[in-house]
């Protein structure tokens, strides 16, 4: 026993090296699995504050481009304001309120919240974006993120009180449902981790005619993304002879290099939809445990 | 300036440069990510004990990790070079002179050639191990090899530039003083 202690004492540097190495690998692999870092809550607050300070300076460099985009979307939104419309009858005024149901039976499905990007990279294979909104502002996991001109950017994967972490479309584990504007056929947007200027659209059958320049939109089949928003345009059609599906290279609509103002979109029925999905799957795919 | 203060400042500057300049540089190529922050570990004084080297290395990596959202990745690589550093120094320098005359590794303390070998080996180890860990979860083998050498190349370039631009004024210490 004494010799064992002496042995450990003699090689204590090597053993502490091993122990720290195991700790860091444990950090790395638990994070990759769950997209949650150990102690990320605290670290997020600290790095978030530093990032915010830096961002105050950096914002000036892309101000002109950003202004143009904000102006553009403001312009299109102003056209939608209810006060632009009036009924012929001057006695009645059209009033639209913000409660979920109106008298015509329309209900609110998506809720947009503005947010500012405080940290963003494109050079890694796993790129994350940090926004200055967190659980204090109602942000939850799995909300979709759109850029200021309405192009898909990513999905929220982590939330701290004042900041949230977004898994960018430029992340090799990201999968987003998208559809072609022309035919409505849907596929999956992925990224191969190589060129941040090109995403990949997989799963579109070869029976459809596709040309470079076709528009790809977010799909109606997505739980988190609102349908009909820009994902990108097709840059190149790669025909993979081994399958019946295209591999399409897509030029993303969002400018990942100069991302500043974004929208975080909440699907107000997200919880209900995913719960139904899971419950139905469980009941049908595992009938022994859940007899009819 | 005391050694402690100098190293704390150096740590802050290198981490901030890494996070806000080098990680933000417009995408050069998919194989090339400029890394410089681990120069902090290469520049630590000779007098730091091996145990402390490990702890400092681990936390240097971890701080960068929390900025880049890859907890453990840089920490593991920094830990490795912090562990190997003392062995390498004892091989590359004549023991009786360097440790007493200069505080920390530098071209002046070690001569240019041994210093460059020292930097090259640790840079290769750092990038090799880091890219290896990334490659385990994603990527092809050829990508792995090219990425290690390309990233090492750009890091060497950066480190040599830093050495030439900011020559450290190291006092020559004698035993008599």
Characteristics of this structure?
heterodimer; A: 292 residues; alpha+beta; Thrombin, subunit H; 2 domains; 6-stranded antiparallel beta barrel; 6-stranded antiparallel β-barrel; B: 177 residues; mainly alpha; Arp2/3 complex 21 kDa subunit ARPC3; 8 helices; 71% helix
Can you give a write-up of this model?
The complex is a heterodimer of chains A (292) and B (177). Chain A is α+β, with helices and mostly antiparallel strands and 292 residues long. The N and C termini of chain A lie far apart (62 Å). The model of chain A is unreliable at 86-94 (pLDDT under 50). Helices cover 28% and strands 28% of the residues of chain A. Chain A has 5 helices and 12 strands. Chain A has 2 domains: 2-34; 35-83 and 110-267, Rod shape-determining protein MreC, domain 1 (Thrombin, subunit H), CATH 2.40.10. The radius of gyration of chain A is 24 Å and the shape is globular. Chain B has a single domain (3-165), classed as Arp2/3 complex 21 kDa subunit ARPC3 (Orthogonal Bundle). Chain B is built from 8 helices and no strands. In chain B, α1 runs parallel beside α3 and α3 (50-68) runs antiparallel to α4. Chain B is globular. Classes of the chains: A alpha+beta (292), B mainly alpha (177).
Across the major sheet of chain A, the strand order is 1-2-5-4-3-12
| Fold-level CATH name of the largest domain in chain A | Thrombin, subunit H
Overall CATH architecture of chain B: Orthogonal Bundle
Number of DSSP helical runs of chain A = 5
Write down the Rg of chain B: 16 Å
Low-confidence parts of chain A = 86-94
Q: In CATH's first tier, which class of chain B applies?
A: Mainly Alpha
Q: How far from one another are the termini of chain B?
A: 18 Å
Q: Regarding quaternary structure, how should these chains be classified? A: heterodimer
Question: Could you say how many structural domains of chain A there are in total?
Answer: 2
Largest sheet of chain A: 6 strands, antiparallel, barrel
Major sheet details of chain B:
none
């Amino acid at each position: 026993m004494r010799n064992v202690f002496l042995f450990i004492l003699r090689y204590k540097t090597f053993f502490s090296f091993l122990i720290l190495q195991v700790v860091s690998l444990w950090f790395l692999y638990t994070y990759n699995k769950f997209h949650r870092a150990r102690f990320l809550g605290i670290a997020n607050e600290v790095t978030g504050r530093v990032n915010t300070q830096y961002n105050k300076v950096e914002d000036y460099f892309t101000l002109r481009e950003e202004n143009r985009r904000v102006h553009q979307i403001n312009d299109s939104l102003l056209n939608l304001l209810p006060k632009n419309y009036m009924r012929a009858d001057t006695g009645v005024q059209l009033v639209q309120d913000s409660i979920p149901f109106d008298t015509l039976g329309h209900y609110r499905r998506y809720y947009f919240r503005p947010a500012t990007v405080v940290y963003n990279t494109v050079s890694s294979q796993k790129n994350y974006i940090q926004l200055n909104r967190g659980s204090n502002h109602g942000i939850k996991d799995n909300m979709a993120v759109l850029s200021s001109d309405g192009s898909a950017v990513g999905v929220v994967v982590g939330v701290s009180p004042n900041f949230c972490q977004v898994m960018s479309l430029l992340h090799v584990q990201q999968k987003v449902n998208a559809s072609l504007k022309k035919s409505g056929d849907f596929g999956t947007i992925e990224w191969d981790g190589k060129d941040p200027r090109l995403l990949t659209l997989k799963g579109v059958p070869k029976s459809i005619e596709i040309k470079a320049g076709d528009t790809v939109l977010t799909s109606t089949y997505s739980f988190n993304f609102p349908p009909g928003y820009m994902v990108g345009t097709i840059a190149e059609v790669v025909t993979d002879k081994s399958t019946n599906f295209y591999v399409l290279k897509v030029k993303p609509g969002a400018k990942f290099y100069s991302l500043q103002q974004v929208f975080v979109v909440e699907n107000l029925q997200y919880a209900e939809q995913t719960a139904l999905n899971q419950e139905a799957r469980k009941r049908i795919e595992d009938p022994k445990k859940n007899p009819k | 300036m005391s050694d402690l203060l100098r190293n704390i400042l150096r740590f802050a500057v290198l981490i901030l440069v890494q996070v806000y300049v080098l990680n933000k540089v417009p995408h050069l190529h998919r194989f090339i990510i400029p890394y410089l922050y681990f120069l902090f570990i290469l520049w630590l004084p000779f007098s730091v004990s091996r145990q402390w080297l490990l702890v400092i290395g681990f936390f240097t990596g971890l701080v960068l990790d929390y900025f880049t959202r890859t907890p453990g990745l840089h920490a593991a690589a920094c830990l490795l070079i912090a562990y190997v550093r003392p062995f390498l120094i004892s091989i590359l320098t004549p023991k009786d002179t360097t440790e007493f005359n200069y505080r920390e590794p530098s071209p002046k303390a070690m001569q240019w050639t041994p210093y460059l070998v020292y930097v090259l080996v640790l840079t290769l180890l750092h990038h090799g191990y880091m890219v290896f860990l990334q490659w385990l979860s994603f990527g092809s083998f050829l990508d792995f090899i090219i990425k290690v050498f390309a990233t090492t190349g750009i890091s060497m370039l950066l480190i040599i530039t830093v050495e030439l631009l900011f020559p450290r004024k190291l006092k020559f210490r004698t035993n008599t003083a």
